[in-house]
Write a structure and sequence with these properties.
Blueprint (H helix, E strand, L loop, with lengths): L3 H10 L6 H15 L5 H14 L3 H17 L8 H7 L5 H10 L25 H10 L3 H13 L3 H16 L6 H6 L6 E2 L5 H19 L5 H9 L32 H20 L3 E13 L2 E14 L7 H10 L6 E4 L2 E6 L4 H4 L1 E3 L2 E5 L1 E4 L9 H6 L1 E4 L8 E6 L2 E6 L4 E8 L6 E2 L8 E7 H11 L2 E12 L8 E9 L8
Antiparallel strand pairs: 1-13, 2-3, 2-14, 3-7, 3-15, 4-5, 5-10, 6-7, 8-9, 10-11, 11-12, 12-14, 15-16
Helix pairs in contact: 1-3, 2-4, 3-4, 3-5, 4-6, 7-11, 9-11, 11-12
Length: 501
């Protein structure tokens, strides 16, 4: 029988597994053991030992995240003493400083003492061509984008220092730069892991943290900016991590029974969307769907994804808009960063926005979105499906006062200054798998419901009509390992064609 030490070793090994979903589940399992009285002390000791042995900054923080997960699961959990955390965090970084401060907000941990980096790149330093060639192979593009932003705004050679830190870590770890591991994991474009963190990727990410520390040491980045950029290396948002995905709601459209012809799927789905709209319009339920998206049909060679966008609409003339353009604007044209309590916590406030800045004309119609995507600072790759579908909140002008939101176990609630619940958001992961097909949305879904009286009040005050614009995207693959083809159709529900000023 395996002893406890060996069992913990196998569990901790999953913290460095290439799949982000495996790493997240490992953190949860470690948190469970930390909360189990019989194993808590031994698990905590082993976890601190594991942290001390790590050679990369971006990997070492996974131990801190396991401790924070235990606190999420049980508010009575007591963190290790701050001195023990600092002593065992042998690869400190701005991110580890933030996470330890999460555990001990009053601890006097000097920011400058965690600015771990190499010296400035020597004048004769020439970056390895591998570094530039494969940045966006091993990391999401946002890292390269942020590096360019820092260079432009701060007039500092950040990317060069990043390359130097990368080269120093490559030498220290003894790894040979190669994209072969990536080719192995991504060799089948029809079925592959999306949230992939290989060892080379962690070298890139750790070098990025070290370059941020260098820029802060040089006085070219303020502490606030350094914290903001470092936050984006955290693989999970601590507030969103509290949310447990629900089951697929019974009202969500889906195909039923075996379908002999794939061409029958769109008609069946559109019939269900029409029925859903009719029920919402006639039954007078307390809540109105203001945004939703999710898989409605899935089989080996075909999938259909449905998106619902709630809008306030006016007609000003005879020309009808192209609803595919309206849907694209709803999905990609209204995202914003809310005012959060911390870069690592997606709890906060929806900033006020003037209605005239939100309205957009398409042909002779004008629209104002009832909901927007709210982006978090972190890049939560451990829950990549939430990055794909994003989190939706009601538009600020839905209520006359400020709106605040908070992540809870069953979703996100949005309240006004009178503590009235204006909206609620939730998601589901019924069919989610570790691997996915190329360019096909994950087998998940999400929805935002807004209080009916808020929708009706705003529509009456503005003389507009609440409606849906829906987009159904079909994905088809005719043979194994062939790129999926897309077919998109859009429809509107509840629009008014009565001309208004």
């Amino acid at each position: 029988m395996m002893n406890t030490k060996d069992a913990l070793g196998l569990l901790f090994a999953q913290l460095t597994w290439p799949s982000g979903m495996v790493r997240e589940r490992a953190c949860v399992a470690i948190a469970d053991l930390l909360l189990y009285p019989q194993h808590s002390a031994e698990t905590q000791t082993a976890l601190l030992d594991w942290m001390r042995e790590q050679t990369l900054e971006s990997v070492m923080v996974h131990g801190l995240l396991a401790l924070l997960r235990a606190k999420i699961q049980d508010s009575n959990f007591v963190f290790p003493h701050v001195d023990d955390l600092v002593r065992n965090a042998q690869k400190p970084s701005i991110l580890s400083w933030m996470l330890i401060k999460e555990m001990h907000p009053d601890a006097d941990i000097v920011f400058e003492q965690v600015l771990n980096h190499s010296e400035k790149a020597p004048p004769a330093f020439q970056p390895d061509p591998f570094f530039d060639k494969y940045i966006t192979t091993f990391l999401p593009p946002i890292y390269a984008d942020r590096a360019a932003e820092i260079e432009k705004k701060e007039l500092v050679r950040f990317r060069r220092q990043w390359a130097y830190e990368w080269q120093c870590l490559v030498a220290a770890t003894g790894i040979k730069p190669s994209r072969t591991p990536m080719d192995f994991w991504m060799r089948d474009r029809s079925d592959y892991c999306l949230a992939l963190d290989l060892f080379m990727g962690e070298i890139y990410r750790s070098a990025y943290l070290r370059a941020l520390a260098w820029a802060a040491t040089q006085g070219r980045l303020s502490q606030a900016d350094a914290v903001f950029f470092a936050s984006q290396t955290c693989p999970i948002d601590l507030a969103i991590w509290r949310i447990k995905p629900e089951r697929r709601p019974v009202w969500w459209p889906q195909t039923t029974g075996a379908l002999d012809k794939i061409d029958t799927v769109p008609a069946q789905i559109w019939q269900q969307v029409q029925a859903l709209w009719d029920r919402q319009r006639t039954q007078g339920d307390e809540w109105v769907i203001a945004a939703a998206s999710g898989i409605v049909h899935e089989e080996e060679e075909a999938a259909y994804d449905l998106e619902i966008f709630g809008l306030f609409q006016k007609c000003h003339g005879p020309e009808t808009p192209d609803f595919s353009e309206v849907a694209a604007w709803c999905r990609y044209g209204n995202g914003f960063y809310p005012e959060t309590v911390s870069p690592l916590h997606f709890d906060g406030r929806i900033p006020q926005r003037r209605l005239d800045t939100a309205v957009k004309a398409f042909a002779d119609w004008s629209f104002a979105p009832a909901a927007n995507t709210a982006r978090n600072v972190t890049v939560p790759r451990w829950q990549w499906w939430r990055m794909n579908r994003e989190i939706w909140v009601p538009s600020a002008y839905i209520d006359n006062g400020p709106l605040t939101f908070r992540c809870q176990e069953n979703g996100i609630t949005v309240r006004n200054d009178k503590d009235y619940m204006v909206a609620e958001w939730s998601d589901w992961t019924d069919s989610l798998q570790e691997r996915c097909a190329d360019n096909v949305p994950p087998a998940t879904g999400q929805f935002l419901r807004v209080a009916r009286k808020q929708i009706e009040r705003f529509a009456a005050e503005t003389g507009s009509t609440f409606c849906w614009v829906c987009r159904l995207t079909g994905y088809h693959s005719k043979s194994y390992n062939k790129e999926w083809e897309r077919a998109v159709t859009c429809r509107e529900f509840g629009v008014s064609r009565i001309v208004r000023d």
